[in-house]
Specification:
Elements lengths: L1 E6 L3 H11 L6 E7 L2 H11 L3 E5 L7 H11 L4 E6 L4 H9 L4 E4 L5 H48 L4 H10 L8 E9 L1 H7 L5 H16 L5 E6 L3 E8 L7 H18 L3 E5 L4 E2 L3 H10 L12 E3 L15 H13 L3 H17 L3 H19 L5 H9 L3 H20 L10 H12 L7 H7 L4 H12 L3 H17 L6 H7 L5 H12 L19
Parallel strand pairs: 1-2, 1-3, 3-4, 4-5, 9-11
Antiparallel strand pairs: 6-8, 6-9, 6-10, 7-8
Length: 534
């Protein structure tokens, strides 16, 4: 029987939900009830329930913060949130926490509660079955994976007896009956993984992805997945005809990508070589694949791609990123995280234009993080640098770097306080604007981000903030523009471009409307040649 915990500081509501449970006929045992966040934490760790019904509006540590803490202790726990009113910030966070439902107390009925609990129980059982299957497979396959890696090393050594090596492979279930090999690899997008999991969880996620690949390869005996530090999941396809189209390999990759997205909620990318070689050339084929790992670094992102055999990269960069370093310093000085996104976005655009050697891009990203750690007096995650080194695309490297910079910024800037000055719902809007400050964000964009109807969001936002969304965004950007214009040698054109305005005249018009002055009047030096702005 599955177990349930109730959390609500409204005692009558808690008693009402408990009363309803008795009439639902579900195989669900109530094992704990709590009236406060402190008591809830203690009881959760003692009971470790499978499902939690939790009030969002708890005093002190609210229901969303409690849910985060619960997920750290028991990631598979299912969550049903209760609240007294609809709130777009809360609903958005509930979605991010993969809540099974978000229920309004005044509208709660036995039928609605039963439906929500049934859905939560079904999802818990599905996840539990999956975890059990993976745990069992992990126990059986771990030693086998070590042996498969040994098999791979023997093939790459060039000195091992080929016949004996193939016999060794057959004992591991690797039976290559055809004369040619083609290969590729599946890469775990590090930015995607770290958005959902901790760095220390990555080895387990790597193993889970490999298990999924193994399950799917059972139906396609000619494809062999092997865990690898160099290539995440290395794939070898045994073919009879060296000119066979690669659809078997790409279809297999796609099935792995889809299943991993479904169960682990992370993004994978597949890469493969267009060449087929006889077994005797296996080592040279493998090394060619590894050497071309970064060749698609600036190409458009696709789920599966052929690795380019040639890539023309720039070896040095005249553009050293000094302006971007200054922006990172401003993020700390002003307590404004939007500078991080501006800095990394500008750097990304420039190195993409220059097609800078990927190794140098990764070094620069690592140096940005080291600078922030030094200035913030913080400590960067060592695993960040390992994952950065393994990135295969500029956007992956940029997203991973932004995440680490923001972590350091939070350590330095967000001192714990009892209450925030700005409404928590507006903080959610500000976070989105920080991440898209170089774009023209509309109310439709914001509504989609919050999973709300655009008309409803516009009305709700004006009621909440007292102004319409367009005015809010423009004032937000003009406050940043004032700070930027005060910097020596900064130009109005660059500030306009940086903040997402393609036209200087329109930027100047908006600036004067919201600041009451022309942009040139905020310059650190004399007014720019040409006099007042239009």
């Amino acid at each position: 029987m599955m177990t349930l915990m109730l959390i609500d500081d409204d005692v009558p509501m808690l008693e009402y939900v408990e009363y309803l449970l008795g009439s639902l006929g579900l195989e669900l045992q109530l094992v704990a009830s709590a009236f406060s966040s402190e008591d809830a934490l203690e009881q959760f760790h003692a009971a470790l329930p499978d499902v939690v019904i939790i009030d969002i509006g708890l005093p002190g540590m609210d229901g969303l913060e409690l849910a985060d803490a619960f997920r750290i202790t028991k990631p598979e726990v299912r969550l049903i949130f209760l609240t007294c009113y609809e709130d777009f910030h809360y609903s958005k966070r509930a979605i991010q926490l993969e809540a099974d439902d978000y229920l309004i107390k005044d509208e709660l009925s036995p039928e609605q509660l039963k439906s929500s609990l049934s859905k939560a129980m079904s999802r818990f059982k599905s996840r539990e079955e999956l975890l059990e299957r993976y745990s069992f497979r992990q126990a059986i396959e771990r030693n086998k994976e070590v042996l498969k890696q040994s098999f791979l090393k023997q093939l790459l050594s060039g000195t091992a007896d080929q016949e004996n090596t193939l016999e060794f492979g057959q004992r591991l279930g690797i039976s290559w009956k055809h004369p040619y090999l083609r290969h590729g690899f599946i890469h775990m997008d590090a930015a995607s993984v770290t958005e959902r999991y901790r760095y220390k969880d990555i080895p387990l996620i790597h193993f889970a992805v490999n298990n999924i690949a193994l399950e799917l390869s059972a139906g396609e005996a000619s494809i062999t997945p092997i865990m690898s530090r160099d290539a995440d999941i290395y794939l070898v396809w045994n073919v009879a005809d060296p000119y066979s189209p690669g659809t078997v390999l790409t279809d297999f990759m796609q099935s792995v990508l889809d299943k991993v997205e479904q169960y682990l909620k992370i993004t994978l990318r597949g890469f493969y070589s267009g060449a087929s070689v006889p077994l005797r050339n296996f080592d040279s084929l493998y090394r060619t694949l590894m050497d071309s790992r970064d060749h698609n670094f600036y190409q458009a992102v696709t789920p599966i791609a052929v690795l380019d055999e040639q890539a023309d990269f720039g070896q040095t960069a005249e553009w050293r990123g000094d302006k971007e370093r200054g922006m990172l310093s401003l993020a700390l000085e002003e307590g404004h995280a939007a500078w991080i996104d501006l800095a990394v976005n500008q750097w990304t655009q420039q190195v993409t234009t220059d097609r800078l050697l990927p190794r140098l891009v990764k070094e620069a990203c690592g140096n940005f993080v080291r600078q922030m750690a030094f200035e913030a007096g913080g400590l960067a995650e060592e695993d960040f640098f390992t994952q950065l080194e393994q990135t295969v695309h500029i956007q992956e490297a940029a997203r991973l770097t932004k995440r680490e910079l923001r972590n350091l910024w939070r350590q330095h800037t967000l001192a714990p306080v009892a209450a925030q000055e700005k409404d928590i719902r507006l903080q959610e809007v500000d976070r989105f604007l920080e991440e898209h400050v170089d774009q023209m964000v509309t109310s439709t964009d914001m509504a989609e981000h919050l999973h709300l109807n655009a008309s409803y969001f516009s009305r709700y936002f004006k009621k909440l903030s007292g102004i319409n969304f367009t005015d809010y965004v423009n004032q937000y950007k003009m406050n940043m523009a004032i700070t930027m214009l005060a910097r020596p040698h900064e130009t109005v054109e660059n500030v306009a471009y940086t903040l997402g305005f393609s036209d200087r005249a329109y930027f100047s018009k908006v600036f004067k409307k919201y600041s009451g002055r022309n942009p040139s009047e905020y310059k650190a030096g004399p007014v720019e040649e040409g006099g007042a702005e239009e």
